[in-house]
Amino acid sequence: MLSSTDLVQAVTADLGKIRETAPLVLSLTNSVVQPLTANLLLAIGAVPAMLNDAEEAVDMLRSGTGALLVNLGTVTREQGAAMQTAVREANRLNIPWVLDPVAVGALSLRTRLAGQLKEQSPRIIRGNASEIMALAGYSSVTKGPESTSSSADALHAARELALHTGAAVLVTGRTDYSTDGRQVTATENGHAMMSRVTGVGCSMGALSAACAAVSPTPLQAAVSTAVLMGIAGEMAFEQSPSPGSFAVSLLDSLYALSPEDVVRRARFLSL
Amino acid sequence: MLSSTDLVQAVTADLGKIRETAPLVLSLTNSVVQPLTANLLLAIGAVPAMLNDAEEAVDMLRSGTGALLVNLGTVTREQGAAMQTAVREANRLNIPWVLDPVAVGALSLRTRLAGQLKEQSPRIIRGNASEIMALAGYSSVTKGPESTSSSADALHAARELALHTGAAVLVTGRTDYSTDGRQVTATENGHAMMSRVTGVGCSMGALSAACAAVSPTPLQAAVSTAVLMGIAGEMAFEQSPSPGSFAVSLLDSLYALSPEDVVRRARFLSL
Amino acid sequence: MLSSTDLVQAVTADLGKIRETAPLVLSLTNSVVQPLTANLLLAIGAVPAMLNDAEEAVDMLRSGTGALLVNLGTVTREQGAAMQTAVREANRLNIPWVLDPVAVGALSLRTRLAGQLKEQSPRIIRGNASEIMALAGYSSVTKGPESTSSSADALHAARELALHTGAAVLVTGRTDYSTDGRQVTATENGHAMMSRVTGVGCSMGALSAACAAVSPTPLQAAVSTAVLMGIAGEMAFEQSPSPGSFAVSLLDSLYALSPEDVVRRARFLSL
Questions:
Q1: How far is CA C159 from the centre of its chain?
Q2: Where, in this chain's numbering, is ATP bound (chains A, B, C)?
Q3: To 5 degrees, how large is the angle CA B202–CA C255–CA B191?
């Protein structure tokens, strides 16, 4: 288990490597959050790619893609098939991929699809408490894309899910939990305003893919995601405490985020 | 017929109920305006949900959805079929639904579809003058999504459409008209800059769905929509008189909008 | 060959005509950039229309459309077929159309499609260096949607492509090159921050369509596009040097852009 100081160093190292290597992140994601996701990846220093065609997804994976994001937010049968194709190719090429199981549980198509995808070796699974509980097989009440459970409620499910799938699981909420099933890192960066902007959660999935492209382990990538996005959210709220301008400042903050900001602001909890 | 004072109280009551109950609004809407629509619903205090699959739309309607928006802006045959399924289920569950017939008249697929949907008991129909006239069966010249008629021109058509469909009709323009076919409420909040940001009109459709989830009548929901969005537009323009920053301030204004703002700014016309 | 003074006058004339005539630009474009594209067209004074259905594209072209944009960024087989239909109708009606071959080269579906579309008389082809080289038949290394070649590298390919297709070719980069195969105009407006916001390049394709609707020649429309967007980018960076707020200021700057700004800032290179 890393100390807080080691964790902070690992987060700043991931940030530095994203900016230095500009990993290409192929995001098969929902149409609502495509603009924010692409802009957020650009702001942190990664290169976003988005497309719909399965054959082209394979082409892109073979052309220097650093990580793949699969987000089920507005999935259709056709997009689901493209995701399956992309995941197989990513695994064949040993490209890390992230599963973001938006609103699984109540919605049938994505729940079936997520149940299949979780068996195909995602490196990271990112969700709120309700989504992680549903994906782990526990029932949970959701209200649309919003979670009604706390992330602490989901920690047991997250550990089971991590052990079952081999993925690092990132449960986002007031406290963010990152676990590979054995170790758990709890972090408390972020601001409630992040839930008043559409796509911030989904963009954490994309950021975790960028981190997975450069980080030594999926667990570290999950922790870096929670800390970097959380700190950017805090900085954004200090600049802009209303949701429209907050979303703008969130991008500005990710662009400006320095290693010193990480050292000063990262908050790890003892468990 | 309510007095202006009663109307203002009813608008502030709707605003309070949206913030208190956070209704889930399922928006089957066009891809151009999805981000603004979702952010606007979050800013006012509602919870947005968006998806593409017909089966999932039914699942979502059965999971606590407060209102459904059907917006035809980028409709395809496949999305049209999902909309038909969703509307049937909403009616079965007595969930209010809103029809936003973007650019009907010149465009064949959506004109046929809107003609069918208007017969299926929408609670609110929201459109600009050209769209309402076309949907009511009058010819009207449109220029893409922009209206070339004034909302006053469309008032007769709006009353007929309301009587025929049983919906409250909201005609948006410099003056906004809300009618159930018998009563008409004319309001004059808003700013011309709202037409320089894509999706503001479509977001009024989404806001009217949020209002329909909490308001005592569809007519009141239409009036509340016109007043709340119009006032937010005025406040936004005072902060930010250029279109990029205006769009940001529009979200900030909806978030900040107080009952006092409504009392001070609501402008009802005598007809 | 026009002098710099003549070129500046021609650019300001195009800007004036867009604002005066508000051309309707039908954009068949990728889902990531739809909101920015629509907002950018509105900011400069054009009217955006977006839709997915092939039959409706034909309807719209017959209803006063000034120019058509075909952008391959998230193309599917179905959207590709709609694009083919729209291009045929645009040519039949003598409506200028723009091809934006996003990320052609590595990705198979769009590369095949772009190869067909370039033979169908686009008035303007807009791309970065890698895209123009790939479309002209030269191999080039791309990293997702980003170009790894400089626009100067692509100038030879651009001239060949222009002569072969009859289109004006606009190669965007640090220096922007506009050519009809015989004349070349090089312009140096813009700012590197434009590449940190998703959709700025794609929005140049849309702006070039708006210019093509009003400009005396496709070549002039390409030059006007490069200069107007570049100047707006410079003005935006002076206001907002971080990417989130830069994107907002870019729209504000296009809205505010005056003929005097063009005269003062336009930078033409001698070749």
A1: 17
A2: 126, 172
A3: 45
- Contact flag B242-C256 (C-beta cutoff 8 Å): yes
pLDDT tens-digit map of A80-138: 999 999 999 999 999 999 999 999 999 999 999 999 999 999 999 999 999 999 999 99
Q: Which residues pair with A100 in a beta bridge?
A: A71
Range of the domain at A82: 4-269
B44-55 tens-digit pLDDT: 999 999 999 999
C133 is in an annotated binding site: no
Question: Does C228 have pLDDT greater than 90?
Answer: yes
Domain count, chain A: 1
pLDDT band at B144 (very low <50, low <70, confident <90, very high): low
| C56, closest residue in chain B (CA to CA) | B107
Query: Which chain C residues are closer than 8 Å to A24 by Cβ?
Result: 143-144
> Would the CB atoms of B244 and C39 count as touching at under 8 Å?
yes
Closest CA to A244 of B60, C12, B244, C261: B244
Q: Considering only alpha carbons, which residue of chain C is nearest residue A46?
A: C196
* Binary contact (A51, C35; C-beta < 8 A): no
pLDDT in tens, B11-39: 999 999 999 999 999 999 999 999 999 99
d(CA A177, CA A184): 7
Supply the CATH number for residue A217's domain. Answer: 3.40.1190.20
CA distances in angstroms from B237 to B190, B213, B245, B253, C234, listed in the order given: 9, 28, 9, 10, 24
Q: Which of A49, A64, A248 sits opposite C248 (nearest CB)?
A: A248
